[in-house]
Amino acid sequence: MSASLRFLGIDPGLRATGWGVIDVNGSRLAHVANGTIMSNDRLSLAERLVEIEAGLVQVLAAFQPDGAAVEQAFVARDPVAALKLGQARGIALLVPARAGVAVAEYAPNHIKKSVVGAGHAGKGQIRMMVEMLLPGCAAATEHAADALAIAICHAHSGGANERIAAALLRDAAGLKAKRA
Predict the structure, then answer these.
(1) Separation between Cα atoms, residue 29 and residue 6, nearest integer Å
(2) Which H/E stretch holds residue 78?
(3) Which CATH architecture group holds 5-179?
(4) How far apart, in whole angstroms, are the C-alpha atoms of residue 130 and residue 111?
(5) Domain residues of the chain, as ranges?
(6) Per DSSP, what are the bridge partners of residue 90?
(7) Residues belonging to the active site
């Protein structure tokens, strides 16, 4: 019997950062939790990033994932919006990495294709498929549904990123030991 893994999916955004946690045991997926971290748009950008960070720290502490996945940014028409999204993505990458959790990134079309079967699926299709793949799951928001889709995509990758990261860490430790 294979060991169960817990994955955290993160859909970064400055206004709303979705998160979703699933357990994976072989090919079986199980919903654990999901939610959305909202930042106060009356605060400064720095303060809003702190809110996102604090929320993600709480999620990691509560659910202790084995791996995390974050949606890659797509090229936006509005450079100011793209920059703000990039800053929220930075927080989404930093928090799990700082906690020692390997972080993978997936393109939006890859996530959609992995979950729905089509790279240009709409939000409604994604939510419906997430709730079909995770029986009993009711995504709190569209951001949480997207985060669960990211976690499912990561599970479908077979956790390869965690195995690669662990192997690289072992190799680096081995080289360091040889040099000492």
Answers:
(1) 10
(2) none
(3) 2-Layer Sandwich (3.30)
(4) 11
(5) 5-179
(6) none
(7) 11, 71, 143
